[in-house]
Amino acid sequence: MAKKNRIDFLQIIIEIGVITIGILIAYQLNSWNENRKIKEAEQSILREIRSNLQLDLIDISGNQSGHEKSLQLIDSINFYASGGLYNPVIPAYLFSAFRDFIFVPQTSAFETLKAKGVDLIKNDSLRIRILRLYDFQYSAVIQLEAEYAPGQFYEDFRYIAENYFLSYDINNLRSIRPKFKGANWLSNPDIQIRLDLVRKERSFFNEAYKETLDEVKSLMEAIDKELNQ
């Protein structure tokens, strides 16, 4: 009888052990599955952010190139002004020199990340860099552009066109002729003040764009490194 009791006891112990091991295995599998889902969600949002950054890169690069071209055109305009000789390209140069560029970042992936919780990004350094880019760097550029009202550059061009051109057609700038002979009118303080202001603002924008461009490229490299781990 005692022997049978011992056997029954051992069987109970074994059954408890099997059940315990089963529970532990199930827990580990569930934990592993949850971690896998979290990891997949993290990688998915990182890929989306990188895709948005790629579009931002195109936007920023295009705007930066536009500002640099405008600065070069201002030099060309002043060159013609100093020589007093009119060239049919001057209206086109003026139009491009006063062209507006606005940065519109792609934020859909970042908004999704905030909705899911920024802690989804486990890499502390990477998470901080993403937050800094969207909440600080991008905001600073947008605020900088907002302070110089959108359309102001073009408004300056329209003022010059209305006051110094006989007539102007945006679709055929090369056909425009000035009201005055030569290009001495380009030296008028009324125009030079506007050109100097545009040069100052564009130079400031250009530096902000360069800094942002470098940060976007660096962040994309960091995301690539995280995704390839």
N- and C-termini, Cα separation: 62 Å
Structural class by sheet pairing and helices: mainly alpha
Whole-number radius of gyration?
A: 32 Å
The parts where pLDDT drops under 50 for at least 5 residues are none
In terms of DSSP E residues, the strand content is: under 5%
Q: In percent, how helical is the residue content?
A: over 70%
The shape is rod-shaped
What's the rounded overall pLDDT mean? 86
Spell out the helices and strands N to C.
HHHHHH
Describe the biggest sheet?
none
Give the beta-strand count: 0
Number of helices: 6
Can you describe what's shown?
The protein is mainly α. Helices cover 76% and strands 0% of the residues. It contains six helices and no strands. The longest helix has 82 residues, at 2-83. The two termini are 62 Å apart. The mean pLDDT is 86.
From the structure above, extract its key features.
229 residues, mainly alpha, 6 helices
